[in-house]
């Protein structure tokens, strides 16, 4: 098993954090993991992505050019990474901010209005946790419990409950 | 809470490696993409009761390291390409005065201000001396977060043992990427103690000591240079480190260092799955360069492909080592570009593999 | 005259033949390379006398500059290092932070401290590093052959200001001691001169205070010393000491600036 994920979106959507939780959860399940950010001069705004590799074997390259899963949170990210996704790959799209218009038939595309769902839960910033939940439920590669534990170790107390509720909401979709 | 593993970026792993090597002094100036290292040292050095200084410039940082080192402490500074250029005079002084120090360069795109994307274009600067005068620094090139930790620990021993600066040469990818690091915070790794009977500590009970590289007496500087060259010769005989993969039956060999070697490893693994007889040599020390294994390999194979994030710098050392014994090809990206697996396959197919 | 007796403070000779002058223990018994009439030799000696009197020779570490005093370690009989041009304050910072119980001082000329090393002196002072700085201002680059220094006064002729320093073309003489005195990290700044016996004694007093401050952990102290350079001022030694009094002190007034 070798899963190569690209998480992408606007800076500020919690893209890096989403990738880190995936890597942490993988580490908890004793898999080989790597996390690689795109890093730029801008701190907020702009586009950002992170590459996560989760594998049973030692990871040769942490650089993902053709993901097996793309989690895309806005239109530019969808336009950039859907075409690069491997055949039979998974694309999770935040349809609140992106519209799928691709001729490819060899992909599984999940359309989730993540930002709107997050808003209804009280904060648009937790759209990242909703798509994480969707990913865990769909791919069944990592346990929900590992992701929850990773959140508990990473987040400050006051943000924990909100993030967990979003993660579970996505997982139970 | 004790955790078995901890997810860390390369910059932080270098910092922890230094902490565990008993680094007593760190000075640095902010520059991307190595800022996590400075921030990590700010926190950890304070926790350990050691010295951290955010200096006013890279020049000042390397000279503070010079001072801490001559006072007998293990000392480190870090920066990225433009900042490392500023440190070159100081590094030359460290070599001239035979002072140990560790200098970390998390390379970014150049020349000039360039960009902050990963690069390997400071290879020449690192392995050929870099500053003024005839000298070498030991150059270690980690390719993973765990190796960044281990090589940083090693770098302090090498620096003390040879009384010479050691450079950790990484790139923005290594600095930024996160991978699990096993057990480090609980480890009680043995720290080697080197007697520093040359350090300036005040002349109580002994004759005063002088540390200097200014040698004006007749023939004095030439003799000093001969002594340094003897030391460099000894280092090049004893300290060569590299990783080899499938060299036993390889017909073609990739040569790459640092994070680029990871991409090459993926290519090699993939082609081996297709029964292609391909191998990999990954220099871990860029100076001293593993020229012997490259020369021996070149005699048995059909070709070498060097892959770098530069216009072809290590390529020159590979060619020097190969001595024309087999064709040497090159695949490189510049200015922050990262070679992709596809580009490497493409290049290999041109080599008729 | 060759001075052989190195003991200075404990003198056991008879009352009839009381020794009044000898080589400080902190000073090596060697001939100096400085030009006749140069102030460096006097200042070296004053530092060594102070170190002897404070009984800190065995715990002192000196940092020599690049400039005429680059060979200071040939004359000082205590641990000394070189530093690259302008960086003695950074080097001293590294030493002092590692060995806070030792006495660390830098010896710097005007080019070293006030031109190429401006950033280091300002930030070392601003951090309030507990070190002593001896700043020798002779208004010219001596070692390289008499070029304009940051402290060269207006109208002064040098190799690179052949018609005299002109403010419009060359900028103004830098009053770096006054600048440094503004910084919160600085406890003591005084400007003295070594142009006559009285000023030499005042200089020694200032140097002693700057070292005492360090011993008492008070923080950053600097003594600027106006010092003659007859060779590159193109004067006789006598004219040079007069020029300090008639010209230099007008722009660089003597006295305590801070502390």
Task: Please tell me about this protein's structure.
The complex is a heterotrimer of chains A (173), B (353) and C (259). Chain A has helices spanning 15-28, 75-81, 114-121, 127-139, 144-154, 157-171; strands at residues 2-10, 32-37, 47-55, 69-72, 90-94, 108-112. By secondary structure, chain A is α/β, with parallel strands linked by helices. In chain A, strands 2-3-1-4-5-6 form a six-stranded mixed β-sheet, with helices on both faces. Chain A is globular. Chain B is of the alpha/beta class and 353 residues long. Chain B folds into two domains: 5-238, Rossmann fold; 243-350, Rossmann fold, CATH 3.40.50. Chain B contains twelve helices and 15 strands. In chain B, helix 3 runs parallel beside helix 4 (81-96). The longest helix of chain B is centred in the middle third of the chain and has 19 residues, at 220-238. Chain B is globular. The termini of chain B are far apart. Chain C has 259 residues and is an alpha/beta fold. In chain C, the strands form two sheets. A seven-stranded mixed β-sheet of chain C has the order 2-1-3-4-8-7-9, with helices on both faces. In chain C, a hairpin with a 5-residue loop joins strand 5 (140-141) and strand 6 (147-148). In chain C, helix 1 (40-53) crosses helix 7 (197-215). The longest helix of chain C has 19 residues, at 197-215. Chain C starts with 39 loop residues before the first helix and ends with a strand. The B-C interface holds B 24-25, 27, 51, 53, 55-57, 59-61, 63-73, 75, 89-90, 93, 97, 200-205, 208-214 and C 57-61, 63-64, 70-71, 73, 76-84, 87, 90-99, 102-103, 119-120, 122-123, 127. Strand 9 of chain B pairs parallel with strand 2 of chain C.
In short:
The complex is a heterotrimer of chains A (173), B (353) and C (259). Chain A has helices spanning 15-28, 75-81, 114-121, 127-139, 144-154, 157-171, and strands at residues 2-10, 32-37, 47-55, 69-72, 90-94, 108-112.
